[in-house]
Amino acid sequence: MALQDLSSIVISSKVRLVRNLAKHPFPSKISKEQGLALTKKIVDAVMKFGDFKVYMTSALSRLDAMVMHEKHLISRELISSSDISAVMLGANETISVMVNETDHICEECTLRGLSLVDVYRQLLSVDEAICSKLDIAFDEGLGFLSSNIADLGTGMTASVTMFLPALTLSGTFESTLETVAPQGVCVSGIYGDETRGQGYLYRISNIRKLGKNEREILEEITNVAIAIAEAEKRARERIAATSYDDCLDLVMRAWGVLTNAHKISQTELMKYVGDLKLGMCLGLIAFKDGMILEKLEQASMPFSLQKSMGTELGELERDKHRAKSVGLTLKNMRIK
After folding, report:
1. Average of per-residue pLDDT values in the chain
2. pTM value?
3. Which end of the chain, N or C, is more open, meaning fewer C-beta atoms within 10 Å of its C-beta?
């Protein structure tokens, strides 16, 4: 399957690299004074390499910090260690470097589509600069040292976010995964295990970092993604050929709820947006902006929604504003 054929299945690719400074306690064991000094040292080293925007976590409001979390720019762990942590964001926010999360340095890069090799190339230049300027904890036998034993070795997590409605609806995702994924591949949701499958979205990543090099990890996850994508494509073709009326009903019900609901939760939104995305893939519905559904998902996240409204909202008010905004936007955007 050509990479361009995967755009409606593989949403994004991400590489995460964990690094620590030698002879320094991990962030959970460090004093505030030591932590701030370490943060300054790491930030200064990274800023000499490139143009990054620096945010001290302690200077962020809770709202701004949670919006950044919803955009996958920072982790909850970074927010939890806000008195000593920081994040540096590169141009277009595709690269982030978190400082004093659970480890001293966590580098991440995310790009659209199935592009793990390109993602790693971009992040590698940052990583090489960091490793050349700082004394990084490394052992010849264990590789890069980490606060989490699972990150020993390369310290790399390579992941892809996939949209798999046909495999989910047909009940064949788990059997497909068993067939194509070797041991050591993990499946979660985009916001952790509890969100697995919400909106038909899954994150596929490697578990093992030790005993494999970076090229092998990237190749393994890429091959797994391609195999799952091929299965999803076949499943879409089957349901389009054998369950057209059921699919159209699913899509139109989603349209009806999203354009008429008085209130809607984020979980409900993801479910119905997922149904509309499937409708777009099967040519059953179309919008002026092909990315509008993903944009609505992001803009409707609880804290992002509050940020756009400029005020703190309770759950009921969020659900009502979400329903109103989404409904109006979709009605104005639909062309089929």
Report:
1. 93
2. 0.93
3. C
